[in-house]
Design a protein that fits this description.
- The protein is mainly α and 119 residues long.
- Helix content is 79%, strand content 0%.
- It is globular and about 50 Å long.
- It starts with a helix and ends with a helix.
Amino acid sequence: MTLINKYVKYVPYLYFISITIYWFTKINKTEGLTAYPILLFGIPFLWQIIKPNNKLNFILGITFVCISSYLILVYLSGIFSFVFNNHNTLSAIIYTGLFVLVNFFMATWIIRNSLKTAF
């Protein structure tokens, strides 16, 4: 149990690294070489795993909470103007909602980690 507690603080960073890798592979299939700058988004999260920095941690948390809050607003406005015409549309909306909520949860987890180490 102590091993799990030791490594559970890295979950949000690994989540955002995996999202960056997924985004890179999806764009790389269609765009090719121009997708490589997307990998730069994963560097701060990888840096937090290798050599944690409290200021960078707090900046990452605040930035991604703001982005996730914006995504929640866009998602809600999209739902209210969307036409549900088949099962695929409903499943896409559900998966998008889960993605938006998990992003917000992981960003708040990063802020929680930075506040834990600050105090």
